[in-house]
Amino acid sequence: MREKWSSRSTFILAAIGSAVGLGNAWRFPGLAAKHGGGAFLFVYLIAMIAVGIPMLMMEIAVGRKTRQGASGSMRALNKKAEPIGWIAVSNGFFISIYYAAVFAWVILMFLCSYKFAGFTGDNESAKSLWMTLIKTTGTTSGYTTISWPVFICLAIAWIACYLCIRKGTTSVGKVVKYTVSLPVICLLVLAVRGFTMDGAMEGLARLFIPDWSALQNSALWVDAIGQVFYSLSVAMAIMFAYGSFLDSKSNIAVDAIIIAFSDMLISVLAGVVMFTTMAGVGMLDNMSASGISTAFIIYPQAIVNLTNIPWLNAAFAYVFYFCLITLAIDSLFSIVEGVSTAISDKFNLNKRKTTLSLCIIGGVLGLIFVTGAGLAWLDIIDNFINSYTLVFTGILEVIVAGWCFKTSKILDEINKNTNKFKMPKWLFAVSIKFIAPVILSLLFVWNMFTLFSGGGIYGAADGYSLTANIIGGWLVMGLSLISGFIVKIIARAKAKNGYVESDIEWDQIAEEA
After folding, report:
1. Average pLDDT for the chain
2. Which residue of 89, 155, 288, 299 pairs with 342 in a disulfide if CB–CB is 3.0 to 4.6 A?
């Protein structure tokens, strides 16, 4: 019998925990600063309603109906679409490998937060702390340079991930009660400090008052849509898996709205923290759209200027990095859960053993990130997966759901148990069939144009060789795209030993009692 969430609130918290990650705390504020504050929020809200929420509902509903992970869910929509589900699973697997490394960096900064007490007013020391700790060369060379503290923290990250999901929905349900509420509490503590600083109102004005002229910048639209897409954890197998654990009486229409807007509100709260704090220390113009730069280089400089009391600055550093730890852990284990669910469903494997194997494999492959070359390789892999493979997967998903299957059937599943609020047919159908494919295609084309025009940050001009881009970018992306065919070959080989591949069809799935 398939495992289920213990309650509606547990599912909502787990989904919020997956959606709310490090990007909410560091990338969202940076993009808002880059693109006219309130103008970015306005476009973000439009993108959330027109693309984000319909896709989130679609994945959860298909997962609940089929009781399958991403690959099985896509197969139920169309037999030829199963490889698309495996691309989503591969996205999740590769993301988990480098996300665990970022999580390890966060853990390390938390453990070393006491150092900020000695950096009061010393911007240079605060700025260089992280890069010193990870011993990065900033290039794809330096494999013999190993940061053992990062190695230890990477091991802690993967062990924590496994412990959180080793018992599936049971252990996840126990963990998310804390990992969702604690970062909110931490952000509120930091926001209170931000509000008490001189210049806080200037920061809030920069965040919420729109600079409407920014709407003329096409990059704003691209970044806002991209942030919605990445933040809601779609196209990486998670929401299919989480939906598959739902009770048949769950209210997807309302729950998805709660998840999406909780994700947005926490992003805005993180924005309040960043804008008030940076304004208070006179660094409002220093905010970066780069998440890693914001968390590990820019914000540490703000921390050492918060007060003239060394231990208090260190205390705020502990709060900040503890906040990032709680944001990172549930995002990491939700990604691994999505991958584990799809694989165990496909091959009828023991879920717990599958999860353990994935954590071990991910930990071994992630060892490259404890070397001096780790930061550069993470940059390359993250760029290719997020900018190209993930968006391409989203395009394929909505094309299958909108054009190779009846959207009305998915909408019926979404609205099955709701009375007060129903997802409008016109909005869902138009979004899945037209708006989402067009918008995501434009995003994909924009990203590809940026790559090939030489204007991207991962070109040879920035120190990354063509060989590094081929190995860390094109090869990883290629493996994701052919993952479905690799699985098919494995399934055929297993069939010789009696393995029977399940055949899932939407209309033949029996309703639960």
Report:
1. 93
2. 89
Helix (H, G, I), strand (E, B) or coil at 37: strand
Q: How far apart are CA 166 and CA 94, in angstroms?
A: 20
E strands along 223-313, which residues? Answer: none
Q: What is the mean pLDDT of residues 65-86?
A: 96
Q: Is the dihedral of CA 467, 147, 335, 331 positive or negative?
A: negative
Sequence-distant (6+) residues with CB within 8 A of 164 are 171, 172, 175, 329, 330, 333
Distance CA 412, CA 51 (A): 19
3-state DSSP helix/strand/coil percent for the chain, to nearest 5? 75, 0, 20
Q: What are phi and psi of 311, to 5 degrees?
A: -65, -30
The DSSP-derived string for 102-155 is HHHHHHHHHHTGGGGGGGTT-HHHHHHHHHHHHT--SSS--TT-B-HHHHHHHH
Which string of b and e fits 164-176 if b means at least 16 CB within 10 Å?
bbbebbeebbebb
Instruction: In whole angstroms, give the CA distance from residue 250 to residue 339.
Output: 23
Integer Cα distance of 377 and 468 in angstroms:
8
pLDDT class of 513 with cuts at 50, 70, 90 = very low
For residue 226, give Cα distances in angstroms to 24, 96, 231, 391, 449: 13, 19, 8, 9, 15
Residue indicated by tokens 């220093």: 286
- Helices 123-134 and 148-165 meet at what angle, rounded to 10? 70
Cα→Cα distances 489→63, 83, 350, 505, Å: 25, 12, 21, 22
Cα distance between residue 287 and residue 284, in whole Å: 6
CA dist 332 and 339 (Å) reads 11
Beta bridge partners of 146: 371
Output the pLDDT for position 197.
93
| DSSP assignment letter at 210 | B
- Amino acid at site 14: A
Residue of 186, 196, 198 whose CA lies nearest to 270? 186
Q: Are 23 and 331 in contact (CB under 8 A)?
A: no
Gap between the Cα atoms of 177 and 156, Å rounded: 21
Percent of the chain with pLDDT over 90: 84
**Phi (first) and psi of residue 166, to 5 degrees:** -60, -30
C-alpha span between 175 and 273 (Å, rounded): 25
Report, as an integer, the average pLDDT of 396-411: 97
pTM above 0.90, yes or no: yes
Number of CB atoms found within 10 A of residue 384's CB: 24
Residues paired with residue 371 on neighbouring β-strands, in sequence order: 146
